[in-house]
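Why should sequence recovery work at all? Because a backbone constrains its sequence more than one might expect. Tight turns favour small or flexible residues, buried strands favour hydrophobic ones, and helices have their own preferences. The token representation captures these environments compactly. In the example below, the structure is given first.
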């Protein structure tokens, strides 16, 4: 069918028609909301490079989770800021059953049993080197790290986490985590694996939040090279085989092709992480009056979903709620 039988503009004539034929819809069910937690009581610290975002003490994090839940959010993803005194090379504090993460998980699950609580599993917030694994002579060791990640996952599962989310990019960790969970009867604890996590400058603000920037070198021996896409498919397929329940691509915006390709390759739900630097760019440009913030956010979230993401971990959930409620 060609012109004039077909005129594309008929379907763009007005808002009602455009809405009717929209191929992609985003809604509150799509979001996973990151929450940053710190020690202490009754305090919330604004994050300089992430305007509108805060670190919460455990008591306030529970309240925050409650607010989000009552606004319709289904899932939160927890990250903890660990004081320097509790950091070492082996991530010992990560295995503390009374540590900040398990304590917060059980508080949130007690208060909000229906909210899906996901936990970050990686050593960097606990590492004196700021790396996602145990370090020996400047090398990030794979297999010894995987052992700790599996134990850490058990601590989170025991506290009531619905999903553990390994963000470390060590090889083989999904299988070892799945085996550990099964052996300890955590049959229904899911794994959301950061399968294609790229070595990216867009994590900058996040590393400030958790004070987790690497003390030496970079993360290129474990996070992926942004030049590669076939490798991302291999990562995703192997995580699916190892037992990942949800697969994630991270960051999102410079990686929409990866989201789209992985969507064609795996059968499990696909998440995308719209990371801190992607948030900061929009906030900064909007503050300068160089971009319309609300429209930018809607366009970005819709684009990520259109590319194939079933779920979006995003700091923009708050803005979305503000824009769409009343
Ligand atoms: C580390 C981790 C990072 C993020 C989530 N988990 C940073 C990194 O790999 O250095 C980044 C999230 C963001 O930038 O929003 N395990």
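From this structural description, the recovered sequence reads:
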């Amino acid at each position: 069918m060609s012109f004039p039988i077909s005129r594309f503009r008929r379907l763009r004539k007005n808002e009602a028609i455009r809405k009717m034929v929209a191929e992609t819809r985003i809604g509150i069910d799509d979001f996973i909301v990151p929450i940053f937690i710190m020690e202490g009581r009754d305090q919330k610290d604004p994050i300089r490079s992430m305007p509108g975002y805060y670190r919460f003490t455990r008591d306030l994090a529970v309240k925050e989770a409650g607010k989000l839940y009552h606004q319709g959010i289904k899932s939160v993803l927890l990250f903890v800021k660990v004081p320097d005194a509790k950091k070492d090379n082996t991530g010992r504090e990560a295995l503390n059953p009374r540590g900040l993460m398990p304590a917060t998980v059980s508080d949130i699950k007690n208060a909000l049993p229906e909210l899906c609580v996901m936990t970050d599993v990686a050593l960097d917030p606990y590492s004196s080197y700021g790396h996602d694994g145990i370090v020996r002579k400047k090398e990030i060791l794979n297999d010894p790290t995987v052992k700790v990640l599996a134990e850490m996952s058990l601590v989170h599962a025991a506290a009531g986490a619905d999903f553990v989310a390994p963000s470390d990019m060590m090889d083989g960790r999904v299988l070892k985590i799945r085996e550990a969970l099964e052996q300890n009867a955590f049959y229904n604890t899911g794994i959301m694996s950061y399968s294609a996590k790229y070595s990216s400058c867009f994590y900058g603000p996040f590393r400030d939040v958790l004070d987790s920037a690497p003390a030496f070198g970079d993360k290129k021996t474990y996070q992926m090279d942004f030049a590669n896409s076939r490798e991302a498919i291999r990562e995703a397929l192997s995580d699916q085989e190892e037992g990942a329940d949800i697969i994630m691509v991270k960051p999102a915006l410079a990686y929409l092709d990866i989201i789209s390709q992985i969507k064609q390759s795996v059968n499990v739900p696909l998440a995308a992480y719209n990371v801190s630097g992607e948030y900061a760019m929009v906030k900064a440009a909007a503050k300068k009056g160089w971009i319309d913030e609300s429209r930018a956010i809607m366009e970005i979230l819709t684009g990520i979903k259109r590319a194939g993401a079933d779920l979006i971990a995003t700091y923009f959930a708050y803005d979305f709620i503000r824009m769409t409620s009343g």
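A few observations help interpret the result. The pocket of PBG is lined by residues 120, 122, 124, 132, 167-168, 203, 206-207, 219, 275-276 (CB under 6 Å).
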